[in-house]
Amino acid sequence: MGVEEGGVGKKGVCIWRWKITMMVLRVLALFATATATVVMALNKETNTFAVATIGNTPIKITLTAKFQDTPANVMFVIANGVATLHSLLMLALSFVNHKHDLKGLRFLIVTMLDMVTIAVVSGAATAIAFMGELARNGNSHARWNKICDNFERYCDQGSGAMLASYIGILFLMLVNMVNIYELKRLNNFKNVITA
Amino acid sequence: MGVEEGGVGKKGVCIWRWKITMMVLRVLALFATATATVVMALNKETNTFAVATIGNTPIKITLTAKFQDTPANVMFVIANGVATLHSLLMLALSFVNHKHDLKGLRFLIVTMLDMVTIAVVSGAATAIAFMGELARNGNSHARWNKICDNFERYCDQGSGAMLASYIGILFLMLVNMVNIYELKRLNNFKNVITA
After folding, report:
1. N or C: which end of chain B has fewer CB within 10 A?
2. Is residue A12 part of a domain?
3. What is the ipTM for the molecules in this complex?
4. Residues contacting residue A168 through CB under 8 Å, at least 6 positions apart
5. pTM over 0.90
């Protein structure tokens, strides 16, 4: 069964193509989640508002909107930071072992970690999506006023981070699909070999 | 290659065990997401508050908290409803075809749909988690007051729906893992057969 050793012939080529596709997708996912983390972590806007006038002297207050003010944003930074580390670790792992990664327990653990990462990052991105919607439009039922009219750049930066995070989820999903497709293809390939 | 036909011998038994495991997990996921959908869709609380007293006559207002008041809750109901339909469809599909489901494009499509469902439901559950946190504690930075002190049952019911949804995600993840494990196991099994 020369098939098992890999590295030569049609199967060898295909596995390299798969490995390179995986690495490219992982790097893209890494960049997207890293961007989301940094953009959100640097999100801070300070504005000065005139609240009243005594004589000719305007009374001003200075307010700062920071990402830490909303728990959902903190979770977003942590989730995307962990997703970035996850991509980095998986990339490092693909250099450590040059044998076929679809064997053994490792494939299952990697797939599970990918899936949990997708779920957590998707949760974080959707949470800030709805927090952003609330900040933009307010909620009259709960008497929560909109704040984005005063902190426009802050809100836009949050939206940018959200977008980067969703792009990261897309790449993480592609990683998972390519992984599973390769396992299936290998399965079918064995059928051909052994037929 | 009698292996391909399945249904007899060790492999046949294993495939049935896998099919039954999958069905049980899908039914559990279905119940969890259906519970989340119904509990949230029925979430409504009406309370009467005394706001002032004129002479001996108290002035009362009646306020109603409905799930539709918060966009995140609406998305939650839709996401969990779609996940329930997804589980139902996948269960129906597993009755339609008695051949091994790990073959062909179908496996990839089902895995992808499972993954997208996990991401969407996880997003919805996390969004209402943070909305619930906001309703319970308020956010002094944004001057959003807590509302759960006035609508305690409403908030508790929302938390219950969230919990059911997270349990549903857990089962959907197990479905995905069992699916991939079975594909891998079949792969290894073929190695044994053809060695």
Report:
1. C
2. no
3. 0.85
4. A29, A32, A33, A36, A80, A83, A121
5. no
